[in-house]
């Protein structure tokens, strides 16, 4: 049991303690005075009146503090699915080694590569996964040189498709190096907020990236958010052999120049997918790693979502506090009735004497 303190504790103490002290002092003093005069045959009505008033002060103080008890309502939280898409928008996601594009030679000495970007695979898979879980809530967290929520949790699947159709790589000139944990802080905050609001929801995280890291900092671990994640997958794009990437200045240009190799500007730079890093992220999150090399079905990635199991594991139970005032209010009513009766008797006697 705890107190909700409808009336501030300080106000209760400042108001009740002096009155309580006065009542106790009167009761003790009156009893002592009468004990000296009459001993065993002394009337005790006055003493008990002050003790009753002291009890009334205590009960009213407890009512002001408003005691509460914890209660649990089984199945009180809503049940559903929430999907987070954590999308890599760095320049490496423009590498042209995903999907069923016609193989072409992009530069002398390079092996033929498909002319479809890794980011095209992301677009396909985001839309496909949203369609695989209709009626869910969706959120998109994207990262490049910075991370941010580009789509807050919404049940509007068309908003997800609209985002996927318009997402682009970062502007090449503003690239500040790739870190695969760039979205970790934003994702954790979003997951915790969602858990606090809707503890009964199933939370799925899909991390879509090529795993490449060019920044010098050691990446952080996703293990800290694993308890917040019920499922999902890490989806990998690209090949270990790598592929060139076109520059991007904010406008879509299919014939834009390739990003040059910093060691040999006469050749395009190659971005190589880092599958071991992606497998590590998957292990930290406690979800499977899946390599995506074409626009195949994603239904099997969400096939094991079981809302009945979630409802049975207790997370849909809602904990709350319930006020327990009525016993003390009832006691206060009885004491007030006794006080009124005492005053009525005293007034009647006083009128008869006059």
UniProtKB/TrEMBL annotation:
The chain crosses the membrane at residues 6-29, 50-70, 324-344. It holds the Pfam family VWA_2. Residues 83-211 form the VWFA domain. Keywords: Membrane, Transmembrane, Transmembrane helix. Residues 253-263 have a biased composition (Acidic residues). Residues 253-273 are annotated as: Disordered. It comes from the Bacteria. This is VWA domain-containing protein. The lineage of its organism: Bacteria, Bacillati, Actinomycetota, Actinomycetes, Micrococcales.
